[in-house]
Write a structure and sequence with these properties.
This protein is mainly alpha-helical. 59% of the residues lie in helices and 4% in strands. Strand 2 and strand 3 form a beta hairpin. Helix 9 runs antiparallel to helix 10, helix 18 runs antiparallel to helix 25 and helix 21 packs antiparallel against helix 22. The chain is elongated. 41% of the residues are buried. This is Major facilitator superfamily (MFS) profile domain-containing protein. InterPro entries: CRAL-TRIO_dom, CRAL-TRIO_dom_sf, MFS_dom, MFS_sugar_transport-like, MFS_trans_sf. It holds the Pfam family Sugar_tr.
């Protein structure tokens, strides 16, 4: 039985569907109703009809919560009357629940309710049109094997480049940990630490002040009876608890009391280095190629890390941290883009998520290094080693064939592709390869003739909506991720173990995400993980502190969800933008991530100054709104990379045309039957 695309007309901006008389609702489950509010004339049989044993809502992917809201609006009498009459006669009955649905979908931005029509084609019998979903497009990299030893080597390099990003980013947790500290003993006071704390430190301000003694010798508790000794002084220098660490940045530069805010500043200065990477280095990578800029970023990170070892002031330390961040972020971002460009679409999600294990490895190695070395300079030396390894193996990295084709370097691209096929032991069809290269080259040449590629093209029609949404998603994911991660020092228990737990929780998050996005795509899992992370943040404050493990579990759940969201976003961002703008499109929205990470430490400080609920509420609100906004993005699962801005802009329109049902399908013979009865 074949399906028929019913005629439509446009009235007041809505698609009007007619000739639905005697249509069996069971066949409409195969139609796609994107934006339920578009349906003005809906057949009465589309409403739940328990009398016929059909419950339309439960047979679709529409949320049951939505049906719970609509259901009370329909009485049994109205439903039975609707089953016996046409839509036109009972238009107000049909419109009422649709109006409610419209309001809900607009408020919550849930406008992508899609039926699964992949099981049944959509054919127009009258003109032979077929809208059946096409097979996955053949990609350039499929012609050289798609996935093999050549791609795996670049995957290893990408994972290794993410390793120092994680360890350097989180290093301040051990460079400036929470240490017990107190005012230094005067040089002429000869007492033990315990005696000094008991006699020379006021109980209400044990860290930033001490008593003023007239006689510094032989201080005993009975001297506190003297009123002159109860005068306090602000600490000029401090002593620190050295039971866990031999030396830290906190103790070396006295980042305590009125200088404690400099710790948050140092974290934000490090994140500020990301802005240099996202604005300059990614632009250079699109202009001059991935490979040379990778070497430049690696060198900047290595030199800055070495200079930081000789810091003589906090300012010098902060400046070197800025350039370490710029170098390491540019390094891993550009290698990540390179890796995604040389992978076949069907392996892209596995590589895109799997490479994050490099981040987990760097995250987990950091507490181990800190536990073994206990000195911030020795830690920094250990964290610098990956830069040396990456720079020494840089010459083995190939240039991106897609970038070469986009810039007219066809011969170099062919050489690299041939080398890739040989390494993968894959027979290259030269005819297909040259046809694909010719097609790609012509598309780039046509676009180059019309306008010059630049960052402003991210805001062209068809792209600007996605750019803005992805920018916001980066802000929220980084804001919540670093807000939770920076909180490990405030948790009870062993600091090394706490930090390791927050790293371990990322492993199942990446593994689960890998399987989910391969079967469910990118958009829905991204939305669900953001929503779950936001709800977890809201749950932390109401949970009692005793027992301590309850809040710990909820916090770990939040870290799990936001990690999953972050990993999906990395894949999503590279698939949406075209080759000519991919590094910029991947890097520019990361300005939002850096902004979120930049603010996160100070939100914690704001919570200390105002109310503990402020950070958690802020984290939760942003995560929930990000989850809803992500539903507006197009699905990119198994799609070939767009090579030009025009192709990238058309993807959204193509998705809308395929998945938006502004078209409703009914059976042709039922329509003929309804006409014959009239």
């Amino acid at each position: 039985m074949q399906l028929y695309r019913d005629p439509m007309v446009q009235i007041h901006g809505f698609k009007v569907i007619y000739d639905f008389k005697d249509t069996d609702v069971r066949h409409l489950r195969y139609a796609t109703f994107q934006n339920l509010w578009l349906l003005y004339h809906v057949p009465a049989n589309c409403l739940p009809a328990r009398e016929k044993g059909v419950h339309l809502i439960n047979q679709t992917v529409l949320p049951k919560a939505l049906w719970t809201i609509i259901k009370p609006l329909l009485s049994e009498k109205l439903k039975s009357r609707a089953l016996r009459n046409t839509c036109v006669k009972f238009r107000p009955i049909v419109w009422t629940p649709i109006a409610v649905t419209y309001i809900l979908t607009k408020v919550f931005s849930i406008i992508d309710f899609v039926y699964d029509c992949s099981r049944m084609g959509v054919h127009n019998v009258e003109n032979g049109f077929s809208a059946k979903k096409s097979e996955t497009e053949e990609d350039l990299m499929d012609l050289v094997g798609g996935e093999g030893p050549w791609q795996r080597w670049i995957f290893v390099m990408a994972a290794l480049s993410i390793f120092p990003d994680a360890s350097q980013n989180m290093a301040m947790a051990f460079f400036a940990p929470n240490l017990d500290h107190w005012c230094s003993r005067p040089s002429d006071v000869n007492v033990s630490v315990q005696e000094w704390k008991a006699t020379g430190i006021p109980a209400d301000d044990m860290h930033c002040s001490r008593y003023r003694f007239l006689n510094h010798t032989n201080v005993h508790e009975d001297q506190l009876k003297n009123s002159t000794m109860k005068e306090t002084l602000v600490c000029a220098s401090w002593e620190y608890d050295d039971s866990l660490y031999q030396s830290t940045v906190l103790s070396q530069f006295n980042l305590v009391c009125d200088r404690e805010w400099l710790i948050s500043l140092s974290k934000s200065v490090y994140i500020a280095g990301y802005f240099l990477s996202a604005t300059v280095f990614v632009y250079l990578a699109d202009k001059f190629g991935r490979r040379p800029i990778i070497a430049m970023c690696n060198t900047i990170a290595l030199v800055s890390a070495i200079i930081s070892l000789f810091s003589t002031s906090f300012l010098m330390f902060a400046v070197t941290r800025f350039f370490i961040a710029a170098g390491v972020t540019g390094l891993d971002s550009i290698i990540y883009v390179l890796m995604m460009e040389i992978i076949s679409p069907k392996y892209r999600s596995a590589y895109g998520i799997g490479v994050n294990l490099g981040w987990v490895l760097g995250y987990l190695c950091l507490p181990g290094i800190a536990w073994l070395l206990r000195h911030w300079i020795y830690m920094q030396i250990a964290l610098t080693v990956p830069f040396v390894v990456l720079l020494s193996t840089w010459w083995l990295l190939p240039e991106s064939p897609r970038w070469l084709l986009a810039h007219g370097k066809t011969e170099e691209a062919v050489k690299i592709l041939s080398r890739a096929a040989k390494r993968n032991r894959f027979h290259v069809s030269e005819t297909k390869l040259m046809q694909m290269i010719s097609k790609t080259t012509k598309a780039h040449e046509a676009e180059a003739e019309t306008e010059k590629v630049n960052i402003l093209q991210l805001f062209k029609p068809g792209l600007w909506q996605k750019t803005v949404i992805i920018f916001y998603l980066w802000i929220t994911n980084a804001f919540v991720y670093y807000g939770i991660s920076y909180n490990t020092n405030e948790l009870a228990g062993d600091p090394f173990l706490n930090f390791a737990l927050y790293g371990v929780i990322e492993i199942p998050a990446y593994v689960l995400t890998l399987f989910v996005i391969q079967s469910k795509g990118r958009r829905a899992p991204l939305a669900m993980s953001c929503l779950a992370a936001g709800i977890s943040c809201w749950m932390i404050y109401p949970i009692p502190k005793d027992p301590w493990w309850m809040s710990e579990i909820v916090s770990l759940l939040g870290k799990f969800c936001i990690t999953a969201s972050f990993s999906i976003l990395h894949v999503f961002a590279t698939e949406i933008f075209p080759t000519t703008l991919r590094t910029v499109g991947y890097g520019f929205p990361q300005l939002g991530a850096r902004l979120g990470a930049f603010i996160a430490p100070f939100v914690r400080e704001m919570g200390k100054a105002s109310h503990p609920l402020v950070p958690q509420f802020t984290f939760g609100f942003l995560a929930v709104t990000a989850g809803l906004l992500s539903l507006l993005l197009p699905e990119t699962k198994n799609r070939s990379f767009p090579d030009t801005v025009k192709e990238a802009a058309q993807i959204s329109r193509k998705n809308a045309a395929e998945k938006d049902i502004e078209t409703v399908v009914v059976l042709k013979d039922l329509r003929i039957r309804s006409e014959s009865t009239d």
